[in-house]
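[Discussion] Sanity-checking designs against the backbone

I'm trying to build intuition for which residues belong where. Below is a structure token string of 279 positions. I'd appreciate it if someone posts a full sequence so I can compare it with mine line by line.
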């Protein structure tokens, strides 16, 4: 189980499309199911739903903390940095998380974005079986040293770029753990960050991050506001989709059958579209 595309409701589709193409390096794929899709090599990364009158997401609400775009190496990370800077966008942060190196920025409507590369799993550190993650200053000079002589960025994001994880604002960590670990079956990987929890499948550092940094007990973002519409969770096949649907319904959680999958929401109101990877 792993995250797929992230769908965002946007007020200014033209500006947001330009940002994701020029500053991030995604390519326009198609327009379907009411959304404009951008990605790499046919893999959808972000879907934009135009809603010109949509209000801003209110502060101190649940919703998207950031979507995280995984690039296939340190040189692609360096190109992502120079691409965003060349398009006039400043990073909001740059961190070494021990398992990964990451850049942070916001899109024109305030949605958080992480662009990161993973270190090889052989370099990940463990302490008593617990995965070690941290937030340290990123060696930007070392990253930029990976650029070739041309430093070319015009080709956009490289093949194998995809959503690596999704990080959410939630109202309650315990409820989030019960849902993502207890019900959906993710493993908890890191508990060491105050007010945050990280979960994954298959031994990854995290596919889902949750935090209460918008405030414990934060109310859900209004359904018509800008920001997260849903994010995908991709499972192996249709049988796995049906298994999760039955599990959700058995626990009294709404699980609506929609074209291509099942739509549900976590206890904080964050919507999730569960789909087969073969869809």
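Best answer:
Here's mine. Compare freely.
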């Amino acid at each position: 189980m792993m995250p797929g595309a992230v769908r965002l409701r946007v007020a200014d589709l033209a500006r947001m499309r330009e940002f994701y193409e020029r500053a991030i390096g995604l390519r326009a794929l198609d327009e379907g199911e009411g959304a404009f899709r951008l990605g790499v090599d046919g893999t959808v990364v972000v879907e934009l739903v135009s809603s010109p009158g949509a209000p801003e997401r209110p502060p101190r609400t649940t919703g998207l903390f950031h979507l995280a775009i995984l690039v296939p190496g340190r040189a692609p990370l360096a190109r992502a940095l120079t691409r965003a800077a060349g398009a006039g966008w400043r990073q909001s942060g740059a961190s070494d998380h021990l398992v990964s190196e990451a850049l942070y920025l916001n899109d024109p409507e305030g949605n958080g974005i992480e662009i990161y590369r993973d270190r090889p799993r052989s370099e990940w550190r463990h302490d008593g079986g617990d995965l070690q993650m941290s937030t340290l200053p990123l060696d930007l000079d070392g990253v930029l040293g990976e650029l070739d002589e041309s430093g070319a960025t015009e080709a956009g994001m490289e093949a194998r770029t995809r959503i690596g994880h999704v990080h959410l604002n939630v109202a309650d960590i315990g409820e989030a753990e019960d849902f993502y670990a207890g019900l959906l079956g993710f493993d908890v990987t890191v508990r060491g960050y105050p007010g945050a929890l990280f979960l994954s499948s298959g031994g990854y550092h995290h596919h889902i991050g949750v935090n209460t940094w918008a405030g414990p007990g934060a109310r859900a973002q209004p359904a018509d506001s800008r920001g997260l519409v849903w994010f995908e969770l991709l499972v192996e096949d249709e049988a796995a989709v049906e298994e999760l649907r039955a599990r959700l319904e058995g626990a009294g959680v709404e699980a609506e059958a929609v074209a291509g999958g099942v739509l549900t929401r976590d206890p904080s109101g964050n919507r999730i579209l569960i789909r087969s990877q073969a869809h």
